[in-house]
Hints:
This protein is 35% helix and 21% strand. The protein has seven helices and nine strands; from the N terminus they run H-H-H-E-E-E-E-E-E-H-E-E-E-H-H-H. The longest helix has 18 residues, at 163-180.
Amino acid sequence: MISYFTSGFGNLNKCEDSCTAGVFDILKYLPADLFWQILKSSLLLDTLPSVAGNIQQIEFWPKWSVKDIEEISNANYIEPDVFINFIDFDVIIEAKRYDEKQQNSKQHRDQLVAYFNEFSDNETKEVYYILLGGLHLEDVRKEITIIAGFLNERTVKLSTIKWSSLLSTIASLKKTIERQGLQHQKPILLLLEDVINVLAIHGYHKKKWLSKMPKHTINQTQIINFKYKTNAK
Length: 233
């Protein structure tokens, strides 16, 4: 599907949902430890555990009911972008289209209230909340405290990440694997290349710095011997 768009045959309605699904629908096929390594290495603010284990379930835009919750009166359900269930903890990801100034603290609170309502049996399970893109300068807090009428006070650990830092991590990992030259890692390289292409479609490109580009020597002799003719008047 990605090749259909990168080859110019189709037009993609580029939005935060297409970027989120395009990236995480591919990353979920990686070995669980590699998926977690990519996520943790990309974080600007990291509160995630060192080890995650296998993904039990990953959902995109799950609908969590808030119908009878007084704290959320303007909706029947709440949809976080990505919900990842591990054995020991859960991860909620709220993604925005661009890297800066789109996240909304009320939306974060509403999603977490909806989560605790939906999974009321998970009273002891840790919850991690990741802001992906849309960051503000004040998004440096490490915890969110949630209080609701049906809920005892709960603390959720907060992490932040940019699409551009995710791209940088994936591109660096891809180069490392390429240098190793191991044939059995070819499928991983193909998956990483697809993620890079998804991000490129959405405007996130690998940058080449002049200081890291190869140097080329100009043949000065040819310049000295260069002759040109002027038009005679």
